[in-house]
Specification:
alpha+beta, Ubiquitin-like (UB roll), PH-domain like, SHC Adaptor Protein, 20 strands, disordered N terminus, RA_dom, Growth factor receptor-bound protein 10a, insulin receptor binding, SH2 domain, SH2
């Protein structure tokens, strides 16, 4: 790199990227970022040895001018092994890369459930799987559940049944397992916890937990809820991998989340509570990185020479109603002047949704499931796509309680005016953007509000 200010890479939110590394003569690591959706050409950005995963994400977020909502992540991806995991914000990127093969790569992706267990711990830790909850008989408040995992002096334990793949074979064995700070154990005699019956399967300090991306049939897995514990020193030796399979999504999430908490402890809490207090790689830039918050939105009045913040809630509501009436009158005037009908394919209302990050066109149901799962199965994660069975309709894919549901959006025609509805015409919208904005504020017939758009960043 030439002397002077360091150049960064511009990565659009709609462009998937993969990262590979290279060592320079002066000991600095360079990250080669390849735009995998285009011609494969790459650019280089300098990554110091002490740069953390969160810092790299902030570099990419800053240059792409997108919102930094603390959900961006670097994903360690091993295509030959079919494994991937999100790096923790505090992990050193260069250190992680040292244990990767030339075929491995980093992906830049949204991960909304990275810290979701801090907000909704009961969704991640069923009482029947946490021994501490069973021993207390419900007498200890659930608010102390996470503190029990974060406190290094406590002895939490997650227990349950998992399928373990037999080494060198495709057969699986159902075993009673126990996850503690010292490691993951299985019982050689039923569900016995006696020390003589417990066998160490994997430790936590020198291992990481991965999601298995390959198909169920490849591993002859008994269920779809696979995960893997990979020793950090292991690169491509499949015999050292601990392939596991849970009975449902909730138990798999519990095992993987508990593994992270027991391994990193208070570091995860610090990452969640004070992301801006760490060393920031963009501190020398004059323009701050944008952040988004539901509480940062205010009503503005631009009727005068200068804009002002509307502090009175009643005035804000009145201004919103007045603005809506203006838009309706403007639409009526445009219609009277002979503007194109919304029924025409060239009309703006029929295509404007295709500019939105949450719209993914003609993708299949299986692809929408994959994208939701990659970006975290949190309540309110959604995307819109074309309906495969009805070419005029659309489908809203929504995640709620770790389950993915689909709602068909039907076009409605009334007096020559086209509208869209997902509740059989009870609530109608002139275009899909208005529909999404409404359900972001109101749950309506949906199980929850639309909260997180599933963007096209994920590979």
């Amino acid at each position: 790199l030439s002397p002077g200010p360091k150049s960064l890479i511009c990565v659009q939110e709609t462009s998937p990227v993969l990262l590979t590394f290279q060592l320079t003569q002066n000991g600095c690591y360079l990250v080669r970022i390849i735009m995998s959706c285009e011609d494969g050409a790459g650019k280089v950005v300098e990554v110091p040895a002490d740069m953390r995963a969160r810092d790299v994400c902030q570099f990419l977020v800053y240059k792409s001018h997108c919102l930094d909502d603390n959900s961006w992540s670097l994903v360690e991806h091993h295509p030959l092994l079919g494994l991937e995991r999100c790096l923790e914000d505090h992990e050193l990127v260069v250190q992680v890369q040292a244990s990767m093969t030339s075929d491995s790569k980093f992906l830049f992706r949204k991960n909304y459930d990275k810290y979701e267990f801090f907000r909704n711990p009961l969704n991640f830790f069923p009482e029947q799987m946490v021994a501490w909850c069973q021993e207390s008989n419900g007498s200890i408040p659930h608010s102390q559940l996470l503190q029990n995992f974060l406190n290094s002096s406590s002895c939490p334990e997650v227990q349950g049944f998992l399928y373990l793949k037999t080494s060198g074979r495709k057969s699986w064995k159902r075993l009673s397992m126990f996850l503690r700070r010292s490691g993951l154990y299985y019982s050689t005699k039923g569900s016995s916890k006696e020390p003589r019956h417990l066998q160490l399967l994997s430790d936590l300090e020198d291992s990481s937990v991965f999601t298995v991306t390959t198909g169920r049939k490849l591993h002859n897995a008994p269920t779809d809820y696979k995960f893997c514990i990979k020793p950090s020193k292991v690169r491509s030796e499949c015999k050292e991998l601990r392939m596991l399979c849970a009975e449902d999504e909730q138990s798999r999430t519990c095992w993987m989340t508990a593994f992270r908490l027991l391994k990193y402890g208070i570091l995860l809490d610090q990452n969640y509570k004070s992301p801006q207090q760490r060393k920031s790689p963009v501190s020398h830039f004059t323009t701050p990185v944008r952040s988004v918050s539901e509480n940062s939105l205010v009503a503005m009045d631009f009727s005068g020479r200068t804009g002002r913040v509307i502090e009175n809630p009643l005035e804000a509501v009145s201004a919103a109603v007045e603005e809506g009436q203006k838009w309706r009158k403007r639409g009526q005037r445009m219609k009277a002047l002979g503007s194109p009908s919304p029924l025409q394919p060239s009309s703006l209302s029929s295509v404007i949704h295709r500019t939105q990050l949450w719209f993914h066109g003609r993708i299949r149901r299986e692809e929408s499931h994959k994208m939701i799962m990659q970006q975290g199965q949190v309540d309110g994660l959604f995307l819109l796509r074309d309906c495969q069975s009805n070419p005029k309709a659309f489908v809203l894919t929504l995640c709620h309680h770790q389950k993915i549901r689909h709602f068909q959006i039907i076009p409605c025609e009334e007096e020559g005016q086209m509208s869209f509805s997902l509740d059989d015409g009870s609530t109608k919208f002139t275009d899909l953007i208005h529909l999404v904005e409404f359900y972001q504020l109101n749950r309506g017939v949906l199980p929850c509000k639309l909260k997180h758009p599933c963007t096209a960043v994920a590979l």
